Amino acid sequence: MNANSSEIPMVQLLTVDGDFIEPKEHAVYGDIVRQLREADFLKFYRDMARIRRFDEEATALQRQGQMGLWVSAIGQEAAQIGSGYGVGPNDHIFPSYREHGVAITHGVDLMSIIKTFRGVNHGGWNPKENRFHLYAIVLGTQVLHATGYAMGINFEGLVGTGDPEKDLAVITYFGDGATAEGDVSEAFLFAATNNTPQVFFCQNNQWAISSPVGTQTKVPLYKRGEGFGVPGIRVDGNDVLACYAVTKKNMDDARNGKGPSLIEALTYRIGAHTTSDDPSKYRDPAEVAEWAAKDPLIRFERFLRKQGIGQDFFDEVKIAGDALAADLREKTFAMPEPPMELMFDHVYSEPHPLIEEQRAWLQGYEESLDGHDPISNGEETPRYGGTH
Amino acid sequence: MSNFAELSIAKAINAGIRKSMQDNSKVLVFGEDVAQLGGVFRVTEGLLDEFGSKRVFNSPIAESGIIGTAIGLAMRGFRPIAEIQFDGFIYPAFDQIVSQLAKLTNRSEGYFDMPVVVRVPYGGGIGAVEHHSESPEAYFAHTAGLRVVSPSNANDAYWMIQQAIESRDPVLFFEPKRRYWQKGQVNLDHAPMSLHTAATVRQGSDVTIATYGPMVVTALQAAENAAAEGINIEVIDIRSMSPIDFGHIVESVKRTGRLIVTHEASTFVSISSEIAAKIAELCFYHLEAPVIRVGGFDVPYPAAKLEELFLPDADRLMEAVDRVLAY
Fold it and tell me: Is A14 helix (H, G, I), strand (E, B) or coil?
């Protein structure tokens, strides 16, 4: 049995045709979904559509030279929006770098994400206020930070008090590729031995740049935590209701003191790893087509239509998407260059002799040029590939 | 009147940590074998009994995990003191230190402080097996965002560990392991100076020797030997390898005109390389001789029976003194 075998049981609540199926072995997930109202379903769909439109527009902006790089999450919207809404409002989220969908469920301004990939700053959102931490580029590093954070919650006694206002949990996101990093295994160990209030959410999108998941693992990834004492479950990552229900259940359990758990969301990276990648060199188009047919948005749209949601709603979402894209373009074109200070600020928490010396030197040097760029001889050089 | 106590460096660090833990309930101690055993050098002995297992606990043997979880704890508002058991065991944590710990305050634009102290017993001279005698400080001094210090005596050990714990930035705290049992008077009431200030530990007029950590005692021995020959050596304990208190060294070199920089670490791209370059720039017209570096050779730390040949000693420093005086 390979790591992605279809024989592996997984929690699925929606068929590809959009029919709700009662989970035989896990009735609790059905119960969680039955507590949702129509407004919740519409919110899930709106956000999945919003993040896809955002993603498509960001890819276009990168192609126009407006961003150094774009990291597409197309195909993973259900895993991200579903799990994101399964996280409690006071819980903390430690993302990797592809979690744009999770970000919007916790109020992160999408322009902050554009800034990161345009090269303006390293995120810039307030991770304390959003409880959505900065993107982590080195794979798996954030998983240990999440575990340390959850250890701290334990030490403060904010687990299993029974007071929903007090109890906290942490969720950390990583991909199938990151599971090969030692930091992820070490995090499983620290989490298990400390019984941390924590969910490990692995989006298995099946490709780590050009390496299929079989390069990273011989066993299904949801089993990766078992040897450390972290039980796992696999969920259909293209089923927004299943991702929501399983995440909510596991986060509730974590908050109640039942310890860490691992969720593997089986999904698919429809696009390239990043805009620098060319998946046609290593991927069978038939495989992409097979997964495109399981598109999480189409599946949920079918569900909603069967619930009686009319065309007006989908038209409204489409119009909102176009407005979002226009706004994104406008704000990206208008985005100012970062100030020089950004490089020198906050390297240390107080003024540092070497850095202050270098800051002052650069300031003086720039002023000495009197606005003339010695390389371009005063002509303005666009930073990103020509005029817009 | 201040209260004094005679303590070894190991006991002084222990007392400093205890004081910080009493003053601030957010201070935690963890690492390999730090709890019941008190660490392999007993630096954390007795802390478990006094502060309990939520504040003093053993970690799995996973250095990246130790630093990675320390970062998460710091994000939550704790002030972790993470022990790396030996210098040569810090490398599994290298990414978490240089790419995460060092950069998080900057990349978060100041939303997070990183008040983490990484304690590292370092250096040779104890006849240890491989990977137990290294001096990796230059790797960390090279990384923006970290502070790197090393005490050379009990009084500094007591105060510098407390100052490191109070720092809002990460501090690599290198403890000179072959001097752990060296005793000294500790002023329990007044810190001698701030964390990153250099100290003149012997005044002289002919040659300046700048050093830190375990080599301060060696430099003082060399200075005594030289005095018998009528050579007057000034010894500076730089105490902080990042940032470096260059002003203090410059003031001395302007008087002596000659500088030797010494440490146990290999000299190639080392702390002494940086000091030599900077002093050449700042004291060009005052130097009577080139700045000479005296350090370990640029080879892997050798087997214990060869370490006396590897480590700079008072005689090797005297040889360097002869060389700078020959100009």
Answer: strand
Give the C-alpha separation, B70 to A286, whole Å. 46
**Three-state SS for B174?**
strand
Q: Any catalytic annotation for residue B132?
A: yes
Output phi, psi for A151, to 5 deg.
Answer: -60, -40
- Global pTM? 0.96
Helices (H) and strands (E) in chain A — how many of each?
A: 14, 7
Q: Does residue B63 or residue A25 have the better pLDDT?
A: B63
Q: What is the DSSP letter of B46?
A: T
Among residues A224, A273, A299, A359, the one annotated as catalytic is A273
Interchain pair B68, A182: CB under 8 A:
no
At residue B143, φ and ψ (nearest 5 deg) are: -95, 120
Distance between B315 CA and the closest CA of chain A, angstroms: 34
Minimal C-alpha gap between A141 and chain B (Å):
7
Q: Give the DSSP H/E element, type plus range, for residue A172.
A: strand A170-175
Please answer yes or no on whether A152 and B92 come within 8 Å at the CB atom: no
Write the DSSP symbol of residue B128: -
Angle at B210 between CA B192 and CA B194, to 5 degrees: 20
Cβ burial, residue B33 (10 Å; 0-12/13-18/19+): middle
For B67, residues 6+ apart whose C-beta sits below 8 A from its C-beta are A144, B82, B93, B96, B97, B100, B101, B116, B118
Instruction: Answer left, alpha or beta for residue B153, where phi above 0 means left and psi between -120 and 50 means alpha.
Output: beta
Active site residue: B132, B196, B248, B263, which one? B132
Strand partners, B56: B29
Distance CA B289, CA B278 (A): 15
Contacts for A350 with CB less than 8 Å, ≥ 6 apart = B168
For residues A335 and A323, what is the distance between their CA atoms, to the nearest angstrom?
A: 18
pLDDT digits (tens, 9 = 90+) for B150-174: 999 999 999 999 999 999 999 999 9
Most confident among A126-135, A366-375, B196-205 (mean pLDDT) = B196-205
How close is the nearest chain A Cα to the Cα of B79, in Å?
11
Nearest residue of chain A to residue B93 (CA atoms): A183
Q: Which of B190, B121, B114 is nearest to B151 (CA)?
A: B121
Q: What average pLDDT is seen over chain B?
A: 98
Please judge whether A189 and B62 are an interchain contact, meaning their C-beta atoms are less than 8 angstroms apart.
yes
Note whether B99 contacts A147, CB cutoff 8 Å.
Answer: no
Torsion (CA) B219, B222, B226, B231 in degrees, nearest 10: -10
Size of interface A-B (CB pairs under 8 A): 128
Residue type, B180: Y
Place of tokens 């009990």: B154
- Which residue type occupies A301? E
Does A91 contact chain B (CB < 8 Å)? no
- Amino acid at position A83, single letter: S
Q: What residue ranges in chain B does DSSP mark as E strands?
A: 4-8, 27-31, 56-58, 79-83, 117-122, 147-149, 171-176, 183-187, 199-202, 207-211, 233-237, 240-242, 259-266, 292-296
Helix axes A38-63, A296-306, angle to 10 degrees: 150
